[in-house]
Write a structure and sequence with these properties.
Glycerol-3-phosphate (1)-acyltransferase; 202 residues; seven-stranded mixed β-sheet; alpha/beta; 7 strands
Length: 202
């Protein structure tokens, strides 16, 4: 409910303040399970990608954010799911699979943490595992500008132009009985290559 109320307001503010521009929105299916995978350089990435998506998104956020007063309450009511970043988090994986099994759209950042603006780094195998196990359509996305608008350590965002580009959906076959980890890593690597192609095309 809160998501539906705040999204139109947030999108207007995004367009005014960040002059946000989106391309390839038609690649995000309107129905069925969808896993959107994107690069990550700023705390602004989830709301801006969510704002430009054609459908509501759930997203994974580091567990520490849920302990921040006000922010924790807000993101928990805006479809965020907690995940521990220090090691494997089977609870978060099960939660993510439940979201996709329910036919919803989920945003994840395969790199696992924020990096420099414009960088596309190596993905964690967990993103590939999630894509393979869920069987969801995987839509790559590349976001630029947020690393300059709100870099790590900053408190207030600067009015930097932000661009979001969505690419054609990927699909991944079930993992073989042997070599599953390599299969998941290969899937995650393919996701990052698709994101890098969006960056280079921009």
């Amino acid at each position: 409910m809160l998501y539906a109320i705040l999204k139109p307001i947030a999108v207007v503010l995004m367009r005014l303040y960040f002059r946000v521009e989106a391309r390839g929105r038609e690649h995000v299916p309107m129905t069925g399970p969808v896993l959107i995978v994107a690069n990550h350089s700023s705390l602004l990435d989830p709301p801006l990608i969510g704002g430009m998506s054609r459908r509501p998104l759930c997203f994974m956020a580091k567990e520490e954010l849920f302990r921040v007063p006000v922010l924790g309450w807000l993101i928990s009511h805006l479809n965020a799911r907690p995940v521990r970043r220090d090691n494997a988090d089977p609870r978060a994986l099960k939660d993510a699979l439940r979201v996709l099994a329910a036919g919803e759209a989920l945003l994840v950042f395969p790199e696992g943490t924020r990096g420099p603006e414009g960088a596309v780094r190596e993905a964690k195998a967990g993103a590939g595992l999630l894509a393979v196990m869920s069987g969801a359509a995987v839509v790559p996305a590349y976001i630029s500008g947020t690393g300059r608008a709100l870099p790590r350590g900053s408190v207030w965002p600067r009015p930097v132009k932000v661009r979001v580009r969505f690419g054609p959906a990927l699909s991944f076959k079930a993992a073989p009985s042997d070599g599953r980890r390599e299969h998941y890593r290969a899937a995650a690597g393919e996701m990052m290559r698709a994101i890098a192609q969006l960056r280079d095309a921009a």
